[in-house]
Write a structure and sequence with these properties.
Layout (H helix, E strand, L loop, with lengths): L9 E4 L5 H11 L3 E6 L13 E2 L2 E2 L2 H4 L3 E5 L5 H11 L4 E4 L5 H4 L4 H7 L4 E6 L14 H7 L2 H4 L14 H24 L4 E5 H6 L5 H8 L16 E6 L2 E6 L3 H10 L3 H4 L7 H6 L1 H13 L3 H10 L4 E3 L3 H6 L1 H5 L3 E3 L9 E3 L23 H7 L4 H10 L3
Parallel strand pairs: 1-2, 1-6, 2-5, 6-7, 7-8
Antiparallel strand pairs: 3-4, 9-10, 10-11, 12-13
Helix pairs in contact: 1-8
Length: about 400
């Protein structure tokens, strides 16, 4: 069996819900040992989010695969001492509590860095660990709004809409994983760890392309544009007889091939439309021509013609389309992962795909507290102490 690139890395995950745990999920998929701390009795609230099977969210099977579950009440001084002991043998700590929470428990960056100078600590919060907004509660949906994404989502003149998934949390997790890998690289060079401060709104803002320089130089505030791509033409969703297709004909040579495919050589040969700036100026004219062509055809007919002409185009998939698509299966992006009682279930595959040391699913998502006793054994906690803690609800 191929050794995974993060094998030997020990991660302590003290986050819950999405942003912190998503980062832990990715590290676990590539070989890290991820020890997840959950509140005794209730666990991570994600266990109870959305659709449940036998009392547990099926989402849990994705977010917590390859992890160990240890139930500890972090509010208790005895448990805080235990965590500091555990941190001595960890490489990474992940947390996404409100700033100041861990400091109040004696588990902040300064505390843990003193215990283990080589520690790398990822801290994910709504607004970051500093600044005037640091103490505000922050969720991904609020960060998406503050980061500029929500304003651009939807149709012009309509109420802004959310993307449909917790994209602010997931983007922050990805930035967090990048930060962890950079910090580990720096630790290899300098033998000392560091803290990574990821703010949800900054992770969203980092994806906002040219919004800021366009405002700074031209005073332009980009507006929502529905399914089109403002300033780049043609790129839009077009109605067929049985649904919509997305067509991106915004390269100069691609545009000429697209116009030929739809029988509009006159537009393809028009010097005014030869380059993007000219097409943007006449985008309504171009969109109308494409829409007239797609409206008379089925999705299959449209896509067959455009694929033959080498025009980037595709359907707008829902999850049923994804689950049945042969390309997803061929790329191992749909994996069979039965639930604990044997009920068939499918989960997303592993990305990114490494050629020599790919990630994988080694263990299913754990039951609540499944690994508590094993960890306490390793840390030398005797049976009497353990029984007392369990009676007090500390574990």
């Amino acid at each position: 069996m191929t050794k995974k690139p993060l094998s030997g890395l020990r991660v302590l995950e003290m986050g819950q819900l999405i942003a912190g745990p998503f980062a832990g999920k990715m590290l676990g998929e590539f070989g890290a040992e991820v020890i997840k701390i959950e509140p005794p009795g209730q666990g991570d609230p994600l266990r109870n989010w959305r659709l449940l099977h036998d009392g547990t969210s099926v989402w849990w099977q994705v977010q917590s695969r390859n992890k160990q579950s240890v139930t500890l009440d972090l509010r208790q001084p005895e448990i805080q001492d235990l965590v500091r002991t555990l941190v001595r043998e960890c490489d990474v700590v992940i947390e996404n509590f409100k700033p100041g929470t861990l400091e109040a428990w004696g588990l902040g960056w300064d505390d843990l860095h003193a215990v283990n100078p080589r520690l790398v600590m990822l801290r994910v919060s709504g607004y970051g660990q500093t600044g005037p907004y640091r103490d505000r509660p922050g969720f991904g949906v609020v960060a998406e709004a503050m980061g500029g994404l929500r304003y651009l989502s939807g149709e012009p003149g309509r109420t802004p809409v959310r993307v449909g998934v917790s994209i602010g949390d997931s983007l922050s997790a990805l930035h967090g994983v990048i930060g962890i890998l950079l910090a580990l690289r720096a630790r290899d060079q300098q033998s000392v760890g560091q803290m990574i401060d990821v703010a949800l709104y900054e992770s969203v803002f980092n994806m906002m392309e040219s919004l800021l320089p366009e405002y700074a130089v031209f005073g332009q505030v980009r507006q929502p544009a529905g399914s089109s791509l403002p300033g780049i033409a043609p790129s839009n969703a077009y109605a067929c007889q049985d649904g919509y297709v997305l067509i991106a004909g915004n390269g100069d040579s691609i545009f000429r091939r697209l116009m030929q495919a739809i029988g509009r050589d006159d537009l393809g040969a028009d010097p005014a439309l030869a380059h993007n700036a000219g097409r943007v100026a006449q985008v309504a004219r171009i969109d109308a021509a494409i829409a007239q062509w797609t409206a008379a055809r089925t999705q299959d007919d449209v896509l067959a013609a455009l694929n033959e002409a080498r025009i980037p185009a595709g359907r707008i998939y829902d999850i049923a389309d994804i689950a049945d698509d042969p390309h997803y299966r061929a790329r191992q992006m749909i994996l069979d992962q039965p639930l604990p009682d044997g009920t068939p279930c499918r989960v997303p595959g592993i990305v990114p795909k490494l050629s020599a040391t790919p990630g994988g699913i080694d263990t299913p998502a754990p039951a609540l507290g499944q690994h508590t006793d094993a960890l306490l054994d390793r840390l030398g906690i005797d049976a009497d102490t353990r029984a007392h803690w369990r009676a007090q609800g500390f574990i």
